[in-house]
Each structure stands twice: as structure tokens, then as C-alpha cells.
TrEMBL record:
<keyword id="KW-0479">Metal-binding</keyword>
<comment type="similarity">
    <text>Belongs to the TsaE family.</text>
</comment>
<dbReference type="InterPro" id="IPR027417">
    <property type="entry name" value="P-loop_NTPase"/>
</dbReference>
<dbReference type="InterPro" id="IPR003442">
    <property type="entry name" value="T6A_TsaE"/>
</dbReference>
<protein>
    <recommendedName>
        <fullName>tRNA threonylcarbamoyladenosine biosynthesis protein TsaE</fullName>
    </recommendedName>
</protein>
<keyword id="KW-0460">Magnesium</keyword>
<keyword id="KW-0067">ATP-binding</keyword>
<keyword id="KW-0819">tRNA processing</keyword>
<keyword id="KW-0547">Nucleotide-binding</keyword>
<dbReference type="Pfam" id="PF02367">
    <property type="entry name" value="TsaE"/>
</dbReference>
<keyword id="KW-0963">Cytoplasm</keyword>
């Protein structure tokens, strides 16, 4: 697999929403395979905002709740499968995830906030997204890294859609 990485500057919440929508449009179709997105960043970095925007762009209607207290929220997608949004901030030990019933059979997409807390139990990411408040506090910095062939295809589709003016590729 060729390493792929993209760095973006997100000026505001609307730009984060636009990134989520672009990720939804360019998500590779993998014949029943699950795509996993690991969302990294400090509190307030925009992980939940990005996840909500992606889910909304995938057609999820109604409330998109934060899984901070429930740990996992499941959303139906077209075609009968689901997207799972996990927030592992409150997990004390990765072994606790065993009791959530995450066998993955119904899911085609996992959006995982604080994945480092599930290390050793979680499957590896296809796409890693690192979000941080930009220097000076204006906007966010998003670094997207492909960790699988599916992730590389996703980033290639994203770059093809948005063009070089909007994405600063770093690979």
C-alpha cells in the first residue's frame, strides 16, 4: 500500500461540515466490507462535528446524538446496513468494549472517537483523521492518513473531487 496523507485547514464549522460531506460522497464502496475511521484530537477539536456531518451526508435523518455516554450510536444507512459512531472517551480499559456487542455484522462504517482507548481490541483504521485547533485558535487543522487500501482509495477520491486548490497533499 502506498502511504497517503492529506492536510487541510478548516476555517470554521462550515468547513468541517463540508469535509464530512465530501468524505461521505467519496467513500469507497467495498462489497460488504467495513470501513473504519479513527478520529483523533483533543476535546473540542471537531471530532463529533465531523462525524455528524459525514452521517448527515450519508442520509441519516433525525437526531444524531453524541455517543459520549452511550458509547455507541447506530444509524441506518441506505441498503439496510448501519453506520456506527463510537466515543471511547469514558472507557477505562479496552476490554470493556467486549460488552458492547460490536461484532460488526450490520455495520459498513465505524466512526470512532478516542480510538486510542480501545487499543488492542479495536480493528485497525482504514482512515485516520487527526483534528487540532489551528495555531492562533482560528479554525482547525485536519490531517487525513490512509492506513489501508480502502483508506488510500478514499483519499484519492477526496483529492479527485476537491482538486488541488482545496487540498494540500503532503505525499
Amino acid at each position: 500500500m502506498t502511504a497517503a496523507r492529506t492536510i487541510l485547514t478548516l476555517a470554521d464549522a462550515d468547513a468541517t461540515d463540508a469535509l464530512g460531506a465530501a468524505l461521505a460522497r467519496t467513500r469507497p464502496q467495498r462489497d460488504g466490507a467495513v470501513l473504519r475511521v479513527h478520529l483523533h484530537g483533543d476535546l473540542g477539536a471537531g471530532k463529533s462535528t465531523l462525524a455528524r456531518a459525514l452521517l448527515r451526508a450519508l442520509g441519516v435523518r433525525g437526531a444524531i446524538r453524541s455517543p459520549t455516554y452511550t458509547l455507541v450510536e447506530r444509524y441506518p444507512l441506505a441498503g439496510g446496513r448501519e453506520a456506527w459512531h463510537l466515543d471511547l472517551y469514558r472507557i477505562g480499559d479496552a476490554g470493556e468494549l467486549e460488552f458492547l456487542g460490536l461484532d460488526g455484522g450490520e455495520a459498513e462504517l465505524w466512526l470512532i472517537e478516542w480510538p486510542e482507548r480501545g487499543r488492542g481490541w479495536l480493528p485497525p483504521a482504514d482512515l485516520r483523521v487527526d483534528l487540532a485547533v489551528a495555531e492562533g485558535g482560528a479554525g482547525r487543522r485536519a490531517e487525513l492518513s490512509a492506513d489501508s487500501e480502502g483508506g488510500a482509495a478514499w483519499l484519492a477520491g477526496l483529492a479527485a473531487e476537491t482538486g488541488p486548490q482545496e487540498l494540500a497533499a503532503d505525499s
